[in-house]
Each structure stands twice: as structure tokens, then as C-alpha cells.
């Protein structure tokens, strides 16, 4: 039987809010990754999600999240990343930041959707 996890876009203003919301909906003890890599790993099963992969994430009010996790939040997240990134990756992150400031490239919302679709194809329902 397919398990459906519901996240509500009205509860998400920032990437940090997303970690809290998805942690409460899916995670173990409120945790379901607090960075993009950990989130991707958690989607693989065994850490909140069924080991057999029989689950769907229903993202309600996703258009609200799409707006709130748009370019301003993407710029904020990339500024945070740039401040702590390894020197060999600074140029790449700086280029991503410049694009986001110009309203180009993927947003935080896009990052999350891409991770879900990559790690759990067909497992995302945008509502």
C-alpha cells in the first residue's frame, strides 16, 4: 500500500522551513536531511520512507512554495553557500549566485523538485 506524505506549501517560507516541514511529515524524530545531499540520501528509503520505495510526496500549495523558494531565497542560500564553500568551488557558486541575482537558472524550489524526481521518479505529486 502506497504511503502518501503531505507537505504544505503555506508552511514554507525558506529552505530551513522546508527541512522542518519535510522532517515532520516524513522524517525520523523530525529529521529528514538538513542539506541537499542529506535530503537526497533520505529519499532512498529506510530513514522515514519505506524501504520498498512505495511512497508519494504530495506537495500541496506548491505554487506558494515555488514563489517563496524563488530567486530571493535562492540568492540568500547561494550567499550562505559561497561564505563556506571550498575555494576550488567558489567560482562555480559565484556564477550560480550571479545568475540567480539576474533571475536566471534553477531556484531552491527547482533544486528540491529535481532531487525528489531524481531519487524517487514518479514519487512527487504537485497539488
Helix/strand-derived category reads: mainly alpha
The end-to-end span amounts to 21 Å
Content of β-strand: 5-15%
Looking at the chains present, what oligomeric state does this protein adopt?
single chain
The largest β sheet comes out as: 3 strands, parallel
Percentage of residues in helical conformation:
40-55%
- What are the secondary-structure elements, in order, as H or E? EHHEHHHHE
Q: How do the strands line up in the largest sheet? A: 1-2-3
Q: Return residue spans where pLDDT drops below 50 for at least 5 consecutive residues.
A: none
- Could you report the average pLDDT, rounded to the nearest whole number? 94
Would you report the number of β strands?
A: 3
Shape: globular
Rg, nearest Å: 15 Å
Number of helices: 6
Keywords:
6 helices; 12% strand; mainly alpha
Question: What does this 3D model show about the protein?
Answer:
This protein has 127 residues and is mainly α. The chain is 50% helix and 12% strand. It has 6 helices and 3 strands; from the N terminus they run βααβααααβ. Strands 1-2-3 form a 3-stranded parallel β-sheet. Helix 2 packs parallel to helix 6 (108-119) and helix 4 packs antiparallel against helix 5 (90-101). It is globular. The model has no long low-confidence stretch (mean pLDDT 94).
